[in-house]
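Final report, results section. Input specification for complex C-07:
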Amino acid sequence: MTQMNMIQAINSAMDVSMQRDDNVCVFGEDVGFYGGVFRATAGLQKKYGKTRAFDTPINECGIIGVAVGMAAYGLKPVAEIQFADYIYPGLDQLVSEAARLRYRSAGEFTAPITVRSPFGGGIFGGQTHSQSPESIFTHVCGIKTVIPSTPYDAKGLLIAAIEDPDPVVFFEPKRIYNGPFDGHYDTPVTPWAKHPASQVPDEHYVIPLGKANIVRGGGDLTILCYGTMVHVVMDSVKTLGIDAEVIDLRTLLPLDMDTIEASVKKTGRCMVVHEATRTSGFGAELVALVQERCFYHLEAPIERVTGYDTPYPHSLEWAYFPGPVRLRLAIERVMEDVSGEV
Amino acid sequence: MASDKKRRNLPSLELYVPEPKFRPGDEADFSDVEVLPAGETRRPDTAAAHDEMHDLAYGLVRVLGDDHKAVGPWDPKLDPDTLRKMLRAMALTRAFDQRMFRAQRQGKTSFYMKCTGEEAVAIAATFALDRDDMTFPSYRQQGILIARDWSLVDMMNQVYSNSKDRLKGRQLPIMYSTKQGGFFSISGNLATQFPQAVGWAMASAAKGDTRIAASWTGEGSSAEGDFHSACTFAAVYKAPVILNVVNNQWAISSFSGFAGAEATTFAARAVGYGIAGLRVDGNDALAVYAATQWAAERARTNKGPTLIEHFTYRAEGHSTSDDPSQYRSADEAAEWPLGDPIARLKNHLIALGEWDEERQEAMDKECAEQVKTAAKQAEKNGILGHGLHQPLETMFEDVFEEMPPHLRKQEQEMLAENRAANNVAKTR
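Structure output:
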């Protein structure tokens, strides 16, 4: 066990994977010699050489297109898109190519690629360094979408993503790279060192994709969240003293619907939380699925706590971010006794 | 604005929108197309620096002269047996196209695309590659498969989306795929295969392999960002890849001017990227062979990628859904100054004393027979729209290696819907 922050855990996942499998290679903008703008690939070029860890042109279409070709050859490419906001020029290669290749070739050609990308706001990144585009990918058939919330999960999930036979988009909540940010932007973030999930095994381990994590068991309300919002939710639950069951989805697709269904049927109330814009966000899918499966168990309308349907505003970041106040108001609404009885 | 007094004396800006020279009803006259005499273009060493061959990106590599003789430094000096094999593959491809086009018109499939007039671009290039080199084709290089002796029945099964279609009826006809044939799954999204070919070549190089990759795209698709991504990556990593631009003058109804042909050649794109660029007579099988052989040797000796523009003409419609008489002169194909690739190779063999019209006629007949026999066999496996040939469950297979729960659920829903449909049919 070593104490790690998210970056170190992600770095360790790639290190372990490259050690175990010569076909794993990592590349992206500033990924090679420098080790990435967030240092996620630091030391990998030195350890594994320039043909396995290298810099690329600033060209996301090329990065992902080349990854698809490398995978067709037999490699296991791990491509970094420097910010999720930059992923759009590579969308055709992801959506029309990587995601469809197994299907259109009836399994003869596959694209076992991993696309890592820091996402989410809360770092004063403005509208081009703060986006949460996860629902664009969950809407595409043939891609898995994974979002970790702790160093321990990040390493186990990233190794699982790299070893997965299908394309995986791995979004890293950059606001929690260095500590489990709880939504209180005006106080310094607690470092990962104080969080138990910062204890990370040095060796190989896997957290299977498609399995949610019940971060906190509870009987009164089910809160579905992922990434940074897991920590913001946990803080609110603690502050408000409610007996909520907090589920960290970890993988949006495939989704662990069994865990969600069991929880909502137990608590009778549900709230979904994400930082991404609301309309057609992943929360909409969650709400639809929960009402399909749990309608007769619901005691109140399902609450959605999300970012607003605007670009991420630079100076108004904390008015945009779904923080403690927005969560408290939503929790109050969903916990209201709607039976009419006093 | 025009009312702005300060700007009153400036001329108005004009937006230029390209227009092809000939439209329906016009007499096509290609006398302004510069056709360099065969044999005149120099052949640099395959190790030559890219900046010492800029002239080749603006020239035209030609081997077969008007007298049907092979001349000049690019003559690959192929033996007559190889020439006859190449000719046969081209003739067989044309026969295949004719048969499948007709099958579409007969309602046996939804769609087809011919490569008439462009056979050399795929076939002569394939002859110059090694059998285990990887190809990333666009939709008009069926000739690669035929040059590699791939089963015609297998190709037709795909065109018919029938029960023996290895792609399980999932792809539009002609979007072939075969790993064994070194032929990457064709995408309907254009030029996506270009960066993929570069990635494959980079992987081959990273692994110390000896195999190279080749890709093809149309001149129209060279306007896609993927083309430029591919050229950038190929140049940066000196990838062992051959990037072919098939300049067949037309992208559906848009002439090559909409991809930039009025300003410069497509081979000249290579100059900006700092890679070797060759412009080749795409209807001259020997020139295509020689250019590919040159580029393959360059790639295999770690001298980097080559961009080859094949100057050719799309003699027929874009696809069975297209009607070129609506937008271009009907004369164009006949007037095309570089002739027909099959006729030119045939005449060359005749000039060598290795072939004659009778043998050509016999071969054409044989090709037509071969295609007919294959079609009959393939049609036994079904044709499109006559019964659902693939089990319904296959709809959900291969989205992922392992079917996730939500797809399993949808599969059950689909099967229930099908049972309900059958029950309705029974009660009627």
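The radius of gyration of chain B is 24 Å. Chain B touches chain A through 47 residues (CB under 8 Å). This concludes the modelling results for the funded period.
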